[in-house]
Design brief:
- The complex is a heterodimer of chains A (236) and B (39).
- Chain A has 236 residues and is mainly α.
- Chain A has a single domain, classed as Four Helix Bundle (Hemerythrin (Met), subunit A).
- Helix content of chain A is 71%, strand content 0%.
- The longest helix of chain A is centred in the C-terminal third of the chain and has 37 residues.
- Chain B is mainly alpha-helical.
- Chain B has one domain.
- The chains are: A mainly alpha (236), B mainly alpha (39).
Protein backbone atom coordinates (compact mmCIF):
# COMPACT_ATOMS: atom_id res chain seq x y z
CA UNK A 1 0.00 0.00 0.00
CA UNK A 2 2.82 2.41 0.94
CA UNK A 3 4.62 1.67 -2.32
CA UNK A 4 1.39 2.25 -4.28
CA UNK A 5 0.94 5.65 -2.64
CA UNK A 6 4.54 6.59 -3.42
CA UNK A 7 4.19 5.62 -7.08
CA UNK A 8 0.87 7.49 -7.30
CA UNK A 9 2.45 10.53 -5.63
CA UNK A 10 5.37 10.66 -8.07
CA UNK A 11 3.09 10.13 -11.08
CA UNK A 12 0.53 12.73 -10.05
CA UNK A 13 3.23 15.28 -9.21
CA UNK A 14 4.74 14.87 -12.68
CA UNK A 15 1.30 15.36 -14.27
CA UNK A 16 0.56 18.34 -12.01
CA UNK A 17 3.92 19.90 -12.85
CA UNK A 18 3.28 19.60 -16.58
CA UNK A 19 -0.28 20.93 -16.16
CA UNK A 20 0.98 23.90 -14.15
CA UNK A 21 3.43 24.81 -16.89
CA UNK A 22 1.02 24.11 -19.78
CA UNK A 23 -2.24 25.84 -18.78
CA UNK A 24 -2.82 29.35 -20.17
CA UNK A 25 -1.16 32.20 -18.26
CA UNK A 26 -3.17 34.45 -15.97
CA UNK A 27 -4.64 37.52 -17.70
CA UNK A 28 -3.11 39.92 -15.15
CA UNK A 29 -0.03 38.24 -13.70
CA UNK A 30 1.00 36.32 -16.81
CA UNK A 31 3.32 33.34 -16.32
CA UNK A 32 4.25 34.38 -12.77
CA UNK A 33 0.88 33.00 -11.67
CA UNK A 34 2.27 29.48 -12.30
CA UNK A 35 4.15 29.81 -9.01
CA UNK A 36 0.73 29.47 -7.35
CA UNK A 37 0.62 25.83 -8.46
CA UNK A 38 3.39 25.05 -5.97
CA UNK A 39 2.72 27.82 -3.43
CA UNK A 40 -0.95 27.10 -2.70
CA UNK A 41 -0.52 23.30 -2.29
CA UNK A 42 2.42 23.90 0.05
CA UNK A 43 0.33 26.26 2.18
CA UNK A 44 -2.61 23.80 2.19
CA UNK A 45 -0.32 20.99 3.33
CA UNK A 46 1.05 23.14 6.12
CA UNK A 47 -2.51 23.39 7.48
CA UNK A 48 -3.21 19.70 6.91
CA UNK A 49 0.07 18.53 8.46
CA UNK A 50 -0.34 20.65 11.57
CA UNK A 51 -3.99 19.58 11.80
CA UNK A 52 -2.81 15.95 11.80
CA UNK A 53 -0.31 16.89 14.52
CA UNK A 54 -3.26 18.16 16.56
CA UNK A 55 -5.14 14.89 16.01
CA UNK A 56 -2.06 12.86 16.96
CA UNK A 57 -1.54 14.97 20.08
CA UNK A 58 -5.14 14.53 21.24
CA UNK A 59 -4.96 10.83 20.34
CA UNK A 60 -1.91 10.35 22.54
CA UNK A 61 -3.41 12.14 25.54
CA UNK A 62 -6.60 10.06 25.23
CA UNK A 63 -5.04 6.64 24.58
CA UNK A 64 -1.44 6.89 25.93
CA UNK A 65 -0.29 4.99 22.84
CA UNK A 66 3.02 6.11 21.35
CA UNK A 67 1.92 5.57 17.78
CA UNK A 68 -0.22 8.72 18.09
CA UNK A 69 2.86 10.62 19.26
CA UNK A 70 4.85 9.33 16.28
CA UNK A 71 2.05 10.47 13.98
CA UNK A 72 2.03 13.94 15.58
CA UNK A 73 5.81 14.38 15.49
CA UNK A 74 6.20 13.01 11.97
CA UNK A 75 3.43 15.19 10.59
CA UNK A 76 4.90 18.28 12.28
CA UNK A 77 8.28 17.73 10.61
CA UNK A 78 6.69 17.31 7.16
CA UNK A 79 4.49 20.34 7.89
CA UNK A 80 7.53 22.47 8.69
CA UNK A 81 9.04 21.51 5.32
CA UNK A 82 5.87 22.57 3.47
CA UNK A 83 5.49 25.77 5.53
CA UNK A 84 9.07 26.69 4.63
CA UNK A 85 8.29 26.02 0.97
CA UNK A 86 5.10 28.13 1.15
CA UNK A 87 7.08 31.03 2.64
CA UNK A 88 9.90 30.67 0.10
CA UNK A 89 7.66 30.39 -2.98
CA UNK A 90 5.49 33.28 -1.74
CA UNK A 91 8.64 35.36 -1.41
CA UNK A 92 9.82 34.38 -4.91
CA UNK A 93 6.41 35.40 -6.27
CA UNK A 94 6.35 38.61 -4.21
CA UNK A 95 9.61 39.99 -5.55
CA UNK A 96 8.49 40.41 -9.19
CA UNK A 97 4.81 41.10 -8.40
CA UNK A 98 4.94 43.25 -5.23
CA UNK A 99 8.48 44.48 -5.76
CA UNK A 100 9.73 43.14 -2.42
CA UNK A 101 10.87 39.75 -1.10
CA UNK A 102 9.04 40.32 2.18
CA UNK A 103 6.45 42.69 3.64
CA UNK A 104 4.95 42.86 7.11
CA UNK A 105 1.54 41.64 5.95
CA UNK A 106 -0.58 39.79 8.53
CA UNK A 107 -0.68 36.52 6.56
CA UNK A 108 3.07 36.51 5.97
CA UNK A 109 3.96 37.36 9.56
CA UNK A 110 1.54 34.81 11.04
CA UNK A 111 2.73 32.08 8.65
CA UNK A 112 6.34 32.80 9.61
CA UNK A 113 5.31 32.71 13.29
CA UNK A 114 3.62 29.34 12.71
CA UNK A 115 6.82 28.08 11.05
CA UNK A 116 8.93 29.05 14.07
CA UNK A 117 6.39 27.69 16.59
CA UNK A 118 6.53 24.25 14.96
CA UNK A 119 10.33 24.45 14.76
CA UNK A 120 10.15 24.96 18.53
CA UNK A 121 7.82 21.94 18.75
CA UNK A 122 10.44 19.81 16.93
CA UNK A 123 13.17 21.19 19.20
CA UNK A 124 11.08 20.27 22.25
CA UNK A 125 10.75 16.70 20.99
CA UNK A 126 14.53 16.41 20.75
CA UNK A 127 15.18 17.95 24.16
CA UNK A 128 13.04 15.66 26.34
CA UNK A 129 14.39 12.26 27.42
CA UNK A 130 11.97 9.34 27.77
CA UNK A 131 9.34 8.46 25.19
CA UNK A 132 6.36 9.00 27.52
CA UNK A 133 7.56 12.34 28.88
CA UNK A 134 8.41 13.51 25.38
CA UNK A 135 5.02 12.42 24.06
CA UNK A 136 3.06 14.10 26.87
CA UNK A 137 4.83 17.45 26.66
CA UNK A 138 4.78 17.45 22.87
CA UNK A 139 1.06 16.63 22.85
CA UNK A 140 0.24 19.64 25.03
CA UNK A 141 2.46 21.86 22.84
CA UNK A 142 0.87 20.40 19.69
CA UNK A 143 -2.64 21.22 20.90
CA UNK A 144 -1.81 24.78 21.94
CA UNK A 145 0.15 25.43 18.72
CA UNK A 146 -2.82 24.36 16.60
CA UNK A 147 -4.84 27.34 17.87
CA UNK A 148 -2.95 29.55 15.42
CA UNK A 149 -3.97 27.56 12.30
CA UNK A 150 -7.41 29.20 11.87
CA UNK A 151 -5.89 32.58 12.74
CA UNK A 152 -3.37 32.18 9.91
CA UNK A 153 -6.08 31.10 7.46
CA UNK A 154 -8.57 33.86 8.29
CA UNK A 155 -5.91 36.56 8.66
CA UNK A 156 -6.51 37.71 5.07
CA UNK A 157 -10.17 38.32 5.95
CA UNK A 158 -9.73 39.75 9.45
CA UNK A 159 -6.92 42.18 8.55
CA UNK A 160 -6.61 44.10 5.31
CA UNK A 161 -3.18 43.57 3.77
CA UNK A 162 -1.30 42.87 0.56
CA UNK A 163 -1.97 39.14 0.50
CA UNK A 164 -5.01 38.30 -1.57
CA UNK A 165 -8.12 36.84 0.14
CA UNK A 166 -9.13 33.19 -0.44
CA UNK A 167 -9.69 32.28 -4.10
CA UNK A 168 -11.26 28.82 -3.74
CA UNK A 169 -12.34 28.49 -0.10
CA UNK A 170 -14.71 31.46 -0.16
CA UNK A 171 -18.47 31.76 0.43
CA UNK A 172 -19.31 32.60 -3.20
CA UNK A 173 -18.03 30.79 -6.29
CA UNK A 174 -14.25 30.41 -6.84
CA UNK A 175 -12.85 33.47 -8.64
CA UNK A 176 -10.66 31.55 -11.10
CA UNK A 177 -11.05 30.28 -14.67
CA UNK A 178 -11.74 26.52 -15.07
CA UNK A 179 -8.39 25.54 -16.70
CA UNK A 180 -6.43 27.32 -13.98
CA UNK A 181 -8.70 25.87 -11.30
CA UNK A 182 -8.14 22.38 -12.74
CA UNK A 183 -4.34 22.78 -12.65
CA UNK A 184 -4.50 24.12 -9.10
CA UNK A 185 -6.75 21.33 -7.79
CA UNK A 186 -4.57 18.75 -9.55
CA UNK A 187 -1.50 20.19 -7.83
CA UNK A 188 -3.28 20.18 -4.46
CA UNK A 189 -4.23 16.51 -4.96
CA UNK A 190 -0.70 15.54 -6.07
CA UNK A 191 0.96 17.36 -3.17
CA UNK A 192 -1.47 15.73 -0.73
CA UNK A 193 -0.36 12.31 -2.00
CA UNK A 194 3.26 13.44 -1.57
CA UNK A 195 2.44 14.43 2.01
CA UNK A 196 0.94 11.00 2.75
CA UNK A 197 3.99 9.27 1.24
CA UNK A 198 6.40 11.47 3.21
CA UNK A 199 4.39 10.94 6.39
CA UNK A 200 4.60 7.16 5.96
CA UNK A 201 8.36 7.37 5.47
CA UNK A 202 8.79 9.67 8.46
CA UNK A 203 6.73 7.37 10.70
CA UNK A 204 8.93 4.43 9.62
CA UNK A 205 11.93 6.51 10.70
CA UNK A 206 10.26 7.35 14.03
CA UNK A 207 9.67 3.63 14.68
CA UNK A 208 13.32 2.86 13.85
CA UNK A 209 14.51 5.69 16.12
CA UNK A 210 12.35 4.44 19.00
CA UNK A 211 13.74 0.92 18.56
CA UNK A 212 17.24 2.39 18.58
CA UNK A 213 16.54 4.27 21.80
CA UNK A 214 15.09 1.20 23.50
CA UNK A 215 17.76 -1.29 22.34
CA UNK A 216 20.71 -1.58 24.77
CA UNK A 217 24.13 -1.02 23.21
CA UNK A 218 26.27 -4.14 22.73
CA UNK A 219 29.04 -2.60 24.84
CA UNK A 220 26.68 -1.55 27.64
CA UNK A 221 26.33 -3.54 30.86
CA UNK A 222 22.81 -4.72 31.45
CA UNK A 223 20.87 -2.88 34.13
CA UNK A 224 21.69 -4.08 37.61
CA UNK A 225 25.08 -5.51 36.70
CA UNK A 226 26.78 -3.04 39.02
CA UNK A 227 24.96 -4.36 42.08
CA UNK A 228 25.21 -8.08 41.31
CA UNK A 229 28.24 -10.15 42.25
CA UNK A 230 31.34 -8.61 40.68
CA UNK A 231 33.33 -10.76 38.27
CA UNK A 232 36.69 -11.94 39.46
CA UNK A 233 38.24 -10.30 36.44
CA UNK A 234 37.02 -6.91 37.65
CA UNK A 235 39.41 -7.09 40.61
CA UNK A 236 42.56 -7.81 38.66
CA UNK B 1 14.99 37.92 -14.46
CA UNK B 2 12.16 36.90 -16.82
CA UNK B 3 8.79 35.60 -15.58
CA UNK B 4 9.75 32.08 -16.63
CA UNK B 5 13.01 32.48 -14.71
CA UNK B 6 11.08 33.17 -11.49
CA UNK B 7 8.81 30.20 -12.21
CA UNK B 8 11.82 27.93 -12.80
CA UNK B 9 13.41 29.22 -9.58
CA UNK B 10 10.28 28.39 -7.55
CA UNK B 11 9.72 24.95 -9.11
CA UNK B 12 13.39 24.00 -8.71
CA UNK B 13 13.32 25.05 -5.08
CA UNK B 14 10.14 23.08 -4.31
CA UNK B 15 10.93 19.86 -6.15
CA UNK B 16 14.60 19.99 -5.19
CA UNK B 17 13.66 20.35 -1.53
CA UNK B 18 11.19 17.47 -1.71
CA UNK B 19 13.73 15.19 -3.40
CA UNK B 20 16.34 16.16 -0.83
CA UNK B 21 13.93 15.54 2.06
CA UNK B 22 12.91 12.11 0.73
CA UNK B 23 16.58 11.18 0.34
CA UNK B 24 17.34 12.27 3.90
CA UNK B 25 14.40 10.24 5.26
CA UNK B 26 15.55 7.10 3.43
CA UNK B 27 19.16 7.51 4.59
CA UNK B 28 18.20 8.29 8.21
CA UNK B 29 15.91 5.24 8.32
CA UNK B 30 18.60 2.96 6.89
CA UNK B 31 21.15 4.27 9.38
CA UNK B 32 18.77 3.83 12.34
CA UNK B 33 17.79 0.31 11.26
CA UNK B 34 21.43 -0.62 10.68
CA UNK B 35 22.50 0.68 14.07
CA UNK B 36 19.62 -1.10 15.84
CA UNK B 37 20.63 -4.38 14.14
CA UNK B 38 24.27 -4.00 15.21
CA UNK B 39 23.32 -3.56 18.89
Amino acid sequence: MKRTIEVAAVGSVLIACVAGLAVPPDSVQGDLQRIMYVHVPSAWLAYLAFGITLIGSVGYLVTDKLRWDRLAGSSAEVGVVFTGLALATGSIWGKPVWGVWWTWDARLVLTAAMFFVYLAYLALRRSVDGAERRAQRSAIFGIVAALQIPVVHFSVIWWRGLHQPPTILRPDNPQIDPPLLFALLLAVFAFTLVYVALLNRRIDLAVAEDLLTDAPRADEHVAGAAVTAPQLGDWR
Amino acid sequence: MTDWGWVAFAYTLVYGTLIGYVTSLVMRTRRANGEATRR
